[in-house]
Specification:
This protein is α+β, with helices and mostly antiparallel strands and about 110 residues long. It has helices at about 1-25, 35-45, 50-60, 85-110; strands spanning about 30-35, 65-70, 80-85.
């Protein structure tokens, strides 16, 4: 039974990993800082660790899908991320791809 649980956990992690880019980009239409993103996603039932979110934000920024600005007007400076125009195109395409694949998978698993 332990093998069953381990296998389930591994597959579950793979599924979530594939959705993480889509979910993070969906929350960056307005400026958002890392901890705020972690908290928001957790509150919505999609918990991510900070050590997952921050590297992902930096990678998406490096790829040109996010842009960032520092807010130094408060005691603790924060780096805000927002989706870029090319990031929005990428997000729209990824979202449509998700919807289509989700539709197909639902049809397949509901056949039997």
């Amino acid at each position: 039974m332990e093998d069953f649980e381990n296998t389930f956990e591994n597959v579950s992690v793979e599924l979530r990993r594939g959705l993480t880019n889509l979910v993070v980009l969906s929350q960056c239409k307005q400026p958002v800082y890392g901890y705020e993103l972690v908290k928001t996603l957790g509150d919505k039932g999609f918990p991510l660790e900070a050590n997952t979110v921050y590297p992902l934000l930096r990678r998406l920024e490096k790829q040109g899908f996010l842009r960032s600005d520092w807010d130094t007007s408060t005691e603790k400076p924060r780096k805000y991320y927002q989706i870029s125009p090319v990031g929005l195109r990428f997000y729209d395409r990824l979202r449509n791809h998700w919807y289509e694949n989700n539709r197909i998978v639902q049809e397949i698993i509901e056949e039997n």
